[in-house]
Specification:
The protein has about 575 residues and is an alpha+beta fold. Helix content is about 45%, strand content about 15%. The strands form 4 sheets. Strands 1, 4, 5, 6, 7 and 8 form a 6-stranded mixed beta sheet that branches. A 3-stranded antiparallel beta sheet has the order 11-12-13, with no helix packed on it. A two-stranded antiparallel sheet has the order 2-3. Strand 4 and strand 5 form a beta hairpin. Helix 4 crosses helix 5 and helix 6 crosses helix 22.
Length: about 575
């Protein structure tokens, strides 16, 4: 398939006439075509297409179809049908009224081409560039970030179901790719009886003894199949099949191979306390989605899948009202970044990449509002160097003295960074200053001498150590000072009133859930889920831009006038 960069075709006159008559006030699709046609260009996708072969559909047209599809939460079949029967869609795509459209499978193949070539964010980034050029997004403002869970597109499996279903998935793939080879390696009739229907917990034996035996059978079958695939006489391409590779990983993660006292080979399911199991970020959860992972958040949320982080612009209510009084249309709140990871990646790992992408687009915020899962001392200090102040709760001092609100916590000690000493509340100085690494992080361990601490009259308020001396753990100077300042600020009422601005991002996540179903993955694999979320964010931005163009974004917020007055008085 080849591509000839042409962009969106011109809208035929008859289509224009009918669309204007049918939609005298316009529609989302019509306004997107009129205002954002340059965003849906073909040139950025040139590297994903060949220069020879039959010409394919314009990637710009397919991107526009996909954005409209997400804006209206349609399936591929519904989107393909809309391209045929909806007049405003025909206008947006520049199609004749008699155009018969395209097959729904084109959209799936197009998404695969984008994800295979790392082009998941192309349209989102181009729309963001348009917003920057129009002055709707700029550096130095306020932005806020939050995350939510995403449930994978495959069913949940326990460890026993996973063991059996991974064998079944590999057999299904081999039955299509290498039926003759498979027939020579296994008893097809026996395996068809065991793995014909999908492995389901409802069909498992009730007895624990029988379930343990079934787990052993699954392990033996998986081991036999892997040994056959990796034997010297097997064609190398067989072990390159994705389902076969996943089977091998699940076999190693789920089973333990040993030899008994008689020298016989024994395979048994791994126990966490004995043979050990892989950590959550490495443990496969499904043979059909190698990127989905199990994760937990708090006590009430446990899911298999991914996590998405959304960042959006936000002015304070006082600024928005000031612009309205001055006769200036306030810019809409727009999504400036979307970041998708597997479910086990903590929020703090997404902070730096999000801020880096914002800087690359030239829209680094002056204030970045986040919840307590995103900051660390290093991140706060690094962001300040780049001109961004992170407005976020930081972890408080967890020493015994700070928790009990009695005695001397870390804030009671005076740090002399030049002299590399710490002075305690009794006026004594530390004996040792030891830079070390703890869990890969630079830290400084401060130790006071035993002869200094033991006779001290304040020892009971300072330490309960059996050695009778106080120890402190500090970060390097810049992170430690940034952390100390953040801890002091977040105790003030002014900071608490200011931080209330972050809560609005949860409404954006709710809008993404209602409109695009962002909490449920449509596709399998992290690249395609990233593509889904990039198009979801693009669709939300298009909807917000359309509301801005038509003046429908000037609605009253859910907060009352009294609440807004209280906010102004406390700001």
């Amino acid at each position: 398939m080849s591509m000839r960069p042409e962009g969106l075709p011109e809208v035929p006159e008859q289509t224009v006439m009918v669309a204007r008559a049918a939609f005298p006030q316009g529609s989302l699709a019509i306004r997107v075509r009129d205002r954002l046609a340059e965003v849906f260009a073909d040139e950025p996708f040139a590297s994903a297409f060949g220069v020879r072969g039959a010409p394919g559909l314009s990637p710009g047209v397919l991107c526009l179809v996909t954005v409209l599809q997400f804006a209206e939460d349609l399936t591929d079949r519904q989107a393909a049908a809309m391209a045929v029967r909806a007049i405003d869609w025909k206008y947006a795509l520049g199609a004749e009224l008699t155009d018969t459209g395209f097959d729904a499978s084109v959209l799936s193949r197009f998404r695969s081409r984008l994800s295979d070539n790392g082009m998941e964010r192309v349209v989102f980034d181009r729309l963001l560039e348009y917003c920057v050029e129009e002055g709707l997004v700029a550096a130095g403002g306020r932005q806020r970030t939050d995350s939510t869970h995403v449930i994978s597109a495959v069913r949940d499996l326990n460890r026993l179901e996973l063991a059996g279903e991974s064998v079944r998935a590999a057999l299904e793939a081999l039955a299509v790719a290498a039926p003759s080879w498979l027939a020579g390696q296994v008893d097809v009739a026996e395996f068809a009886h065991r793995y014909g229907p999908r492995v389901d917990g409802w069909r498992m034996p009730a007895s624990q003894t029988k379930r343990d035996r079934l787990a052993q059978v699954f392990g033996q079958d998986a081991l036999a199949l892997c040994r056959a695939a990796w034997s010297p006489g097997t064609p190398p391409w067989i072990r390159e099949i994705e389902s076969v590779q996943i089977l091998r990983q699940i076999l190693v993660q789920t089973y333990y191979l040993s030899t008994d006292t008689r020298g016989r080979e024994v395979i048994k399911k791994r126990a966490a306390d004995d043979e050990g199991v892989p950590p959550g970020h490495r443990r496969l959860a499904s043979p059909y989605d190698a990127d989905a992972r199990w994760a937990a958040k708090g006590e009430g949320l446990f899911w298999m899948g991914y996590k998405v982080h959304l960042t959006e612009t936000r002015d304070t209510p006082t600024e928005a009202e000031a612009e309205a009084e001055a006769g200036v249309r306030a810019a809409p709140n727009l999504i400036t970044d979307v970041c998708t990871t597997d479910a086990t990646v903590p929020d703090v790992k997404a902070t730096a990449p999000v801020q880096q992408r914002l800087a690359e687009h030239g829209i680094r915020p002056a204030e970045h509002y986040l919840d307590s899962g995103y900051p660390s001392a290093d991140l706060i200090a690094a962001a300040l160097k780049q001109g961004t102040r992170m407005v976020t709760p930081v972890l408080l001092d967890h020493s015994a003295q700070a928790k009990a609100h009695a005695g001397f916590d870390k804030s009671a000690f005076i740090i002399d960074w030049r002299a590399r000493q710490v002075r305690c509340p009794a006026g004594k100085t530390s004996a040792h200053w030891n830079p070390v690494k703890q869990h890969g992080t630079d830290t400084i361990v401060i130790t006071f001498g035993v002869r200094t601490c033991r006779p001290c009259p304040f020892r009971d308020q300072c330490t309960s150590s059996a050695k009778g001396r106080r120890m402190l753990t500090l970060r390097p100077r810049e992170p430690e000072e940034a952390l100390t300042q953040a801890r002091a600020e977040q105790k003030t009422e002014t900071w608490k009133a200011k931080y209330a601005l972050r809560a609005g991002v949860e409404g954006t996540i709710n809008q993404a859930l209602d409109i695009t179903g962002i909490r449920r993955a449509r596709y399998r694999g992290l690249p395609k889920v990233r593509l889904q979320h990039a198009f979801s964010a693009t669709a939300l931005n298009v909807i917000r831009l359309d509301a801005h163009w038509t003046g429908h974004d000037q609605h009253h917020t859910r907060s009352s006038r009294l609440e807004r007055l209280a906010y102004r008085l406390t700001a």
